Amino acid sequence: MDVWLHYARFAAELAVISGLTILVAWRAGVGLGWFPLWALVRAVVQLSVIALLLRGILAVPATVAAFVVLMASTASWTAAHRLEGLWHGRRAAVAGVLAGASTSLVVIFALGLVELRVRYVVAVGGIIIGNAMSASTLSGRNFLRSARARAPEVEAWLSLGATPSRANEAVGQEAVKESMLPGLDQTKSTGLVTLPGAFVGALFGGASPAQAAQFQLVVLAGISLAMLITGVTVTRLVGRTPYVVG
Question: What is the spatial distance between Cα 227 and Cα 99, in angstroms, rounded to a whole number?
Fold first, then answer.
């Protein structure tokens, strides 16, 4: 009974925070509606399911590959829906997430920066894949916004005989840079402004501060690599569009 009371109180406290978010957004005219609450409810359901799955995965290491594929598939699907407005945006989003996340994870474990154990594969994989998903969405949307703003420039390049890739090259470079800046700012301020989740999680897991710091640095470096490759892949692919974005 005490366990259920604990969970009921925890849910009520989460609802208070979400309610405040909705109230502030409504008063500020942001127009989020009930989306913050809906997002939190989905997170509760999904994390509950994942918690149950992880109990089995950690007990049967052979299933970890399937779980990583599930995470990558979900991230790709989510990013694909965000880039539907771009030429072949769905394909570009999937290719970007898979290219960025897989490259970064292979490098991390191939160098031995993190021990190749089930719990570490799941933990690092989730962080890297999640950030690759964000990079796909950000770079794609930045590309769309920049392409619209610089449409005359792109059109001029095309009129001079440039290929679509060449005409959109500067647009893509700007989009990738803008998508990278928030993550790089967080990396730069780590330890002074923020204590990232990987560091805190490692401490709670019993690691020493030095070990937790090492783990966090590996994660930050891996995130930067994954986001860069994802952004470049997405913008290069959508930049092949034969149309001027208007």
Answer: 10
